Every structure is written in C-alpha cells, then in structure tokens.
Amino acid sequence: MLTLISSLTGSRLKWLVPMLALGLVVFSFASVSHAQDVVVTPEVVVAEVVAEVTEAAPTIDPEQEAAVLGKGGMPYLMLTTNNLWMMICAALVFIMHLGFACVESGLCRSKNAVNILTKNVMVVCIGILMYWVVGFALMYPGFTAGEYNWIGFSSGTMKTLLFDPSSADTSFGYYGGAYTFWTDFLFQAMFAATAATIVSGAVAERIKLAPFLIFTVLFVGFLYPFVGSWKWGMGWLNDLGFHDFAGSTLVHSVGGWGALAGVILLGPRLGKYRSDGGVNPIAGHSMPLAAIGVFLLWLGWFGFNGGSVLSADPAVVSFVLVTTTLAGAIGGIAALITSWLVIGKPDLSMALNGILAGLVGITAGADVINPVAAVIVGLIAGVIVVLSVLFLDKLKLDDPVGAISVHLVCGIWGTLAVGIFGAGKSFLPQVYGVVAYGVVAFIFALVVFGILKAVMGIRVSEAEEIEGLDIGEHGMEAYPGFSAVTVGAEGSSSISPSGKRSMA
After folding, report:
1. Distance of CA 27 to CAs 22, 23, 33, Å?
2. Which residue among 10, 63, 253, 498 has its CA within the 20 to 30 Å range from the CA of 277?
3. Is residue 1 part of a domain?
4. How far apart are CA 411 and CA 430, in angstroms?
5. Which CATH number fits the domain that encloses residue 169?
6. Whose CA is closest to 242, among 370, 403, 405, 430?
7. DSSP tag of 428
C-alpha cells in the first residue's frame, strides 16, 4: 500500500511516514508520563468547563463591576433570573383580572354578564394607562426614609415613561439588580387596576357604566398611587413602621372602602330586601364560573405575593408561597364549616369567598408570619367573611359578590394580624395604617361617587335593572336565546319562547 502511495505522490512521502510514526510514539510516551503526575478529578473537569464558559462569556468592565458590587447589586445572571421571575409574577397578577371577571359574572345574574365583563375589561385598560401616565410617578416619588413625607411626584419617572424611554435604567444599579425599570412599572401597573376591580363587584347589577369608568380613572390614577406612596413609596407610614407586604390594606382595603362608599350611595338591588327586614337571596347564574374564577385568583396570588418579594430569592419566595397557600386553604374550609353551622347548609359561594378571605388576610404578613400563624390568620378570615356577609345584609348593604367582606373586612384583619403574629412587628403602626387608609379612601370615594350621582346619576332606571344591564347599557346578551326567569306566585319558573328553560 505504501509503495502504491509513494508511486503516486513522489519520494517525499517516504520521509513523511516515518516522521509521523515517530511523532505518535513521542506523544504516547508524553501522555503516559503526564497522566502519572496529574489525576483528572471532577473538580478539574468543572474548572476546565468554567474556564471555557468564562472565556466565551461577554466581559464586564472591572471598574463598573466593582462599583455595582459596592452598591449591593447582583451579577448579570442573577439580574436576569430576578427580572424573569418578576415578569412571570406580573403575568400571574394579570391573570387575576380574568379570575375577578369570572367570579363577579358567575355570582351575578346572566342578564348582567356583558355589563360586568365590560367593566372588568375596561378597569384593566384604564388602570394600566393611568398608572403609565401619572400613577407610577405619584406612587414612587423618591421619598427619603425618615422625613415623614405625605405626597410627592417624580417628574423624572414621568419623563422616562412618556417622552424619553432611552433614559430608563436597565442596569445592575436599578433597585440593587433585582429587576429593570420597565419590569418595575409593569409589575406595579398590574396591581393598580385591582383596587377598582374590587369596587366593580360590590356595585354590580345596578350601576351605570359611564360614571363607573370615570370613577375608575380617578380612583386608580390618583387615589391608589397617592396613598400607596405612604408605605411602598417610603412615605410617612413606612417611617412609622407600618408593614403591608403585598397589599392587604394598600390594595384590598383601599378597594373595599371604595366599594363600601359606592354601595351606600347606590342602594340595594330591586327585590333584595323585604319590608319586614328579611332578605331575598339573589342567586348567581353560574357557580362553575365562580369556582373557576377563584382558582384563577388563587393561581394569580402566587404572583401577587411571590412577586412582592421583589426578587427571585429562593428562601423568601418559597416561604411566602407556603404561608399564602396555607391561609387560602384553611380559609375555604373555615368558611364552609361556618356557613354549615350558621345557615344550616354548606354554602359553596361562602367557601369560595373563604379561600379569597384567607388569601387577602395573609397578604399583609406573608413574609413575617410563620406557617402555623398563617393557618390561624386564614382560619379567622374564613369565619369572619361569612359573618360579615350576613351582617352587611342586616344593614341592607347589598354586595352581590361579597367584595366588601372579602377585601375590606379581611384586609383589615390581615393588616392587624401582622402586629399580632408578625416577627419583629408592632401592633400600633398597623392600627395607624388601617385608620389612615380607611379615612382617606372612603371619603375620596364617597365624594367622587356623590358628585357623579348629582351630575349624571350613577344608577340605572328600574325598567333597565329589571330587563338587565346587558340590553339597556350594551344592546347585547351574554347568552343569546335565553331570557331571565320569571318566578310566579307559587314559585314556578317560566320557559323561554325557544322551549328551553331560561337562565337567571
């Protein structure tokens, strides 16, 4: 074979072949000798891989890296991880709006479903835009801790959002490397719309659409971020030691106070209360839809509370998700048992609201309340939400979905519970927070609804309420082909013209 190759390539190959053979022999001896001196361990392999990855990775200026680390920042990989977690949490909080829409429409009558869904859709759209225009700059004005600030506004934040997006801080230096400016805005904007959604449920089935949307603009755009700055914007309540981790008061109670003001000025739905003081239950049209909504809200709460850690810190995030889940679970059980004992039947709607009550209750202290105490907080919330619903009916305050009981009453309980069970927390600052937010939010909502009532009216006509807001306000139906049930003197229900039993 070599003779053949040599004849084809010339005489030079005669020298090349022996030289290659000699080189292989030398390489083999060198490899054996080196193997006797160096033991290849897993650590060596890892070191070689890390060296290769480091060599291929983008370099960071040493001075910049030193400055970042000196500010308490995080390496690029940790920034990316934190930022990704926060964006996922923003998406989970967004899903909560679908949950609210399902719960509210399911617990109300089918003739008002389109109106309810319209309000929920518009609350999200209005809330995000108003928070972009003014809310973010009002809620995080750059207060300095220890100065007991009440109100402020960041023109720089507003400029970045509206006119100069290139100036947004997406570096390691923004909030210690936990996330970027844009993620911060996105996550907080998802929270903002939630407060007005709470109001929507309480005033359902009799409020005009236009005045409600005007109220939403003012409530989300100005009130929520203004009072939010007192704690989350490093304002005066934060300086007093008030603690509200994810918003039992800042989000839920604020929305609950707005709901209470609306219910008082609107009055109850037609036929809800009898002249003798009795209550006529008005059943919702779809308990499956309500149950789906609660599960969606529970899922969203993993982002609501988990994202409020404001990083992907594995120890804190996992702890917060455990306390959150435990409180929601026991809240549902407690509400079911309470309704069974008080009403005589295990009420599914009460159990669903009990889950939400437990979640609202733990939201203020999910990071500082241990799991055993979290179960206690959720259990008490599950009991008081049932008692609150029954008590509000005694006062003839008509809340179709129980929003006031879930968000206001249990939000107050959860905030006070931080002072009882929270590690290193005091009770008195929690009282200050509950009172301050309650007075300002309730008065603001009462004034806005009062002005709207005087100027344009806030309640639909009796004929429109009987026919349904879907037809009167929107000219469409959620379930075409079905009509509202008419209950006769002996309790018999009518059949729709199509021959199908109608849905209430």
Report:
1. 9, 6, 10
2. 253
3. no
4. 12
5. 1.10.3430.10
6. 430
7. H
